[in-house]
Amino acid sequence: MNDGRAERLTKLPKYLFVEIDRKKDQAIADGRDVIDFGVGDPDGPTPDFIIDRMAAAIRDPANHQYSSSRGMPELRKAFADFFQRRYAVTLDPDAQVLVLLGAKEGIAHLGTAVLDPGDIALIPQPGYPVYASGAIFADAHCHTMPLRPDNDWLPKLEEIPPAIRQTASLMWLNYPNNPTAAVAPRSFFDQAVAVAKEHDILIAQDAAYNELFFDDPPPSILEVSGAGDVAIEFHSLSKTFNMTGWRIGFAVGQPQALAALADVKSNIDSGAFAAVQHAGITALDGFERAEVRGQRGIYRARRDILVEGLRNAGWSVDPPAATIYLWAECPAGVGSMDLATRLLDEADVVVIPGSGFGPTGEGYVRFALTVPEERTREAVERIAKLGW
Ligand SMILES: *Cc1c(COP(=O)(O)O)cnc(C)c1O
């Protein structure tokens, strides 16, 4: 113990944006006109048809009590129905669908459910820090799988050292990817499932951005035949329906892993607010509504302004096919922290330096597409004036 804190907390991923955050707060306090591409939190409101359902559900006393920690049967069925329509994959709502208090909650608790102390978890880098946190909470070891542009930001599974591959218990994947915006083809999931079967590894694929696409809809790993024996997949209403604050997500797939996760959860939470679960059913049933689909058009328009503007400014960027991010190579060999600092100091524009997602993120910065078109246009004009 040090200072009353558990030793394992010292192993958690470090928060590296302290200095950028401080500068941003100072710039705002100084009255500067800051344009913030930092936070990956949709700026639009939750659609009215979902709010209306919530407003009615909150007045029903039946929704005021503890709900089941696995999620209401009606919501699990609604997600299975959605999954059938979207992916043509059949899920058993009882054994293969678990409701979460947001995908992050399940991601953080999965390690406790399936890892013993000293087990090995394979963690992609650059990546969402919570995969490592969950393994650290279970006193497991993290083995990094580097993602690189020369392999389209997919891990090279054949490069995992044999001794690690043979002993690893869990492999995290995240496609469409945060921060790189890469989409995995079905063939990659085929390969990952084969490796998992051969070496008895559980795959946990984070599909939080699967419904925010600009080209072909990204696949589910559960489309791969036999994947339901070795893989679970995390889904979320947060990004798809502008519901980040509502805290509703899902884990689906391999029943044993979901049962273990449900056991952990039943000792921690007592279920999502039933009114939110009713609103979640309404959201899923309304997935094809114009105001939900329209969200993709909003991000696409911002993406196109940003890509064109940065290209005109001399940056080399490719338009992402999914997610709410643009992962942009730093121009002129500038380091990502230096670039982010310069954009903030000289253009009042906030981006996230790639190095904050791990060393293999160096050389890139992440723009979140959560800034309205006019302000995005203003930002690229300011960036162009800096010259590179
Ligand atoms: C936003 C995000 C999540 C968390 O989603 P919630 O359902 O809001 O907890 C999970 N994974 C990634 C990669 C994310 O960016």
Give keywords.
single chain; 388 residues; alpha/beta; Aspartate Aminotransferase, domain 1; Aspartate Aminotransferase, domain 2; 2 domains; 3-stranded antiparallel beta sheet; globular; binds pyridoxal-5'-phosphate
Report on the structure:
By secondary structure, this protein is an alpha/beta fold. The chain folds into 2 domains: 135 residues, Aspartate Aminotransferase, domain 1 (Alpha-Beta Complex), CATH 3.90.1150.10; 238 residues, 3-Layer(aba) Sandwich (Aspartate Aminotransferase, domain 2). It is built from 12 helices and 12 strands. The protein has a 7-stranded mixed beta sheet with strand order 2-8-7-6-5-3-4, with helices on both faces. The protein has a 3-stranded antiparallel beta sheet with strand order 9-12-11. Strand 5, helix 7 and strand 6 form a beta-alpha-beta unit. Helix 4 packs parallel to helix 5 and helix 4 crosses helix 8. The longest helix is centred in the C-terminal third of the chain and has 23 residues. The protein is globular, with a radius of gyration of 21 Å. The relative contact order is 0.17. The mean pLDDT is 96. It binds pyridoxal-5'-phosphate (PLP). Pyridoxal-5'-phosphate binds next to helix 4. The site of pyridoxal-5'-phosphate has 14 residues, from helix 4.
